[in-house]
Amino acid sequence: xxxxxxxxxxxxxxxxxxxxxxxxxxxxxxxxxxxxxxxxxxxxxxxxxxxxxxxxxxxxxxxxxxxxxxxxxxxxxxxxxxxxxxxxxxxxxxxxxxxxxxxxxxxxxxxxxxxxxxxxxxxxxxxxxxxxxxxxxxxxxxxxxxxxxxxxxxxxxxxxxxxxxxxxxxxxxxxxxxxxxxxxxxxxxxxxxxxxxxxxxxxxxxxxxxxxxxxxxxxxxxxxxxxxxxxxxxxxxxxxxxxxxxxxxxxxxxxxxxxxxxxxxxxxxxxxxxxxxxxxxxxxxxxxxxxxxxxxxxxxxx
Length: 302
Hints:
With 302 residues, the chain is of the alpha+beta class. Among the domains are: 66-156 and 222-238, Alpha-Beta Plaits (2-Layer Sandwich); 159-220. It has helices spanning 2-35, 39-45, 78-95, 126-143, 158-184, 189-221, 232-240, 242-287, and strands spanning 66-76, 100-108, 117-124, 146-156, 223-231. A hairpin with an 8-residue loop joins strand 2 (100-108) and strand 3. Helix 5 packs antiparallel against helix 6 (189-221).
């Protein structure tokens, strides 16, 4: 009985496997049928150009290549101002040169700016600048500061970049032609020298154009961010005593300007006076001849 059951089970397994193989075989032969399709039939079934729907060809719109320049004027108490400048500089440095770059840091001190005024210039990706702007407001509120001024300038470099790329392609084609001419030319040595000179000029123009194009692409990829940090006391002083401070600040330049004008006028009048004074003295002397001496009569003389 056990042998009969095992035999029947084995038969059932074989039958099931055969049926599965039969079912899978048409699916595997289908691609082969497509591959062995006659070329004529494929040509008949393929859509022709005439059958294709006709319509105006629309080119995909080009993405504007915009260069952004951000400028923010910040004010905060002097105690936390330096820490803020250092924190922003460190955040840019930690992000890496591929994301953010520190271009310059300038500090000016004097009565006009209160204790000190800092200017930090960065170049960063739009994503980094967007995150920085989101966190800036909260950071200023934490230290008691605020944004005094903000400005966003945009420059469209699309046309300039397209023109530059077209110019580079034309110059490269010209360079290739000159190189081919130089290899096959069998003329005079002076002609070869002229071709080499022109080839050098064309290559120099290509290098300059490629540098300018790379600069424009970098401006598009990374925007410039200028941050100006001013103490809160200096901002208040500028708002209340702005006219007086301006007058005091212009006292020295105004004095120097007036003195410069006087010296300039004196420089023009001095040579004229040196020439005109002797002439006027001579004319006056000739117009008034010396009068005859008067005789004084003494008493007793007739």
